[in-house]
Amino acid sequence: MADQYLNFATSGLGRSLVKQLGLPAPVTLRRYREGAPLVPGAILVVGSSPLAAELGELLLGWGQEVRTHDAGDAALGAIVAVLDDLESPSGLSAPALTISPALRKLAPGGRVITIARPASNDDAPAVAAARQGVTGLLRSLAHELRDGATGNGIELAEGIGLDAPSAQGALRFLLSGRSAYVDGQFIRVEGTGGALPSNPDRPLAGKVAVVTGAARGIGAAIAKVLHRDGATVVAVDVPAAGDALAKVANEVGGTTLQLDVTAPDAGSKIIEHAQRRHGRLDIVIHNAGITRDKLLVNMDAAKWDSVMAVNLESQLRMNQAFLDAGLPGLRLVSLASTSGIAGNRGQTNYGASKAGVIGMVGASARAFGALGGGINAVAPGFIETEMTAKIPFGTRAAGRLILPSLQQGGLPLDVAEAISFLASDAAGGINGRTLRVCGQSLIGA
Ligand code: NAD
């Protein structure tokens, strides 16, 4: 979406004015383009464990330029720190101080990625302290990065190595422009399931994907990205949105299903449509959602119940239908929200529904996993939509001052990219998790 402030702030005159006035200085983020390099420069691998050596080999195999020492002046496209061998907090010092000077060479849109083991209460306290320390290091560093660079981590559960398809899938996602607005987040890989796509530009080739709430906004962006990535899309929305829905479906060469997701038989209708029209169902994106904001002191039953019905209860019911049908390998992604994590004034109903999604996804993982599939959530933060575009120019610029390092909202496209990754076979070892797409901010809808 065209953004006046971003255009202004990146113009010649705008850049100097923005600097003088101390206004936010957003840059155009590095987003996915077919055929573009995975990263904008060489990759520095930090770490001395066998996994670090394995990573170097892997990246070379992907055709990347890999360095193990930060020599020369050339820009670095990414710094990947392998920290799987931490035994105590003192082990953090060497990698932190190796990353430090390299940061000056990080290219615009660059990436800093940690690969570590998640802390657990079964660890020795010093081990857990060091492992948990990685999250604080990375999240703080992500706040310090500029020029559209981001910092994220991959947590490999005990026994999971870089040969796990989802370890590689998560690494490719985080290195690439697909993760432009994912910042300060950790992707945990707990299984060896899944597979990397034979064509990285068509990771969903041959898949049939249902997107609810596809007539506009984030849902329409999801339909477009899933189609771009190779999927056949079934676009679902309420009959009242029929015209807009047909437009989206035509654009992506998919089919429409006019359906209120709160209908008791919504799940079976979706299965029936996908199988009759396309012969299969591989992916469901639970995107349909509503807000009915009111302070709790002024809340009424209609506002509370409708939000819970659309945003959460419909998903629980549809998921049961999908499980009852035993669809093999079904992958689902639900829309949560940063409001379900940090809370938001006026959104007790919405926050409850979105926190509920996070709980539901965690508790549904085993059942979908048993069928060879999986379920995850994406929690968008401040996403620039038609709604935020109407906020006056000055207010929007001021609002961005409190958005951390990226100094801008995300786009529906950014949410869609994360969803497409989680829906793909490359995320087969990621199950029951929630990934924030929030530019490291907890402000949002
Ligand atoms: P939107 O209002 O622009 O679009 C939602 C779509 O869902 C509409 O087309 C609507 O007709 C459809 N829908 C609503 N109720 C339905 C029902 N009962 N059955 C079928 N379809 C129904 O919203 P959006 O901003 O694109 O948000 C999409 C999702 O992302 C929602 O779940 C929302 O909660 C979540 N989200 C959005 C933001 C944001 O910044 N926009 C942030 C966090 C989370």
TrEMBL record:
Q: Which InterPro entries match?
A: KR_dom, NAD(P)-bd_dom_sf, SDR_fam
Q: Which domain of life is it from?
A: Bacteria
Tell me the Pfam families matching this sequence.
adh_short_C2
Q: In Gene Ontology terms, what is one molecular function of this protein?
A: oxidoreductase activity, acting on the CH-OH group of donors, NAD or NADP as acceptor
Residue ranges occupied by any Ketoreductase domain in the UniProt entry: 207-386
Family membership: Belongs to the short-chain dehydrogenases/reductases (SDR) family.
Which NCBIfam families does UniProt cross-reference here? PRK08261.1
This protein is called 3-oxoacyl-ACP reductase
* Taxonomic path: Bacteria, Bacillati, Actinomycetota, Actinomycetes, Micrococcales
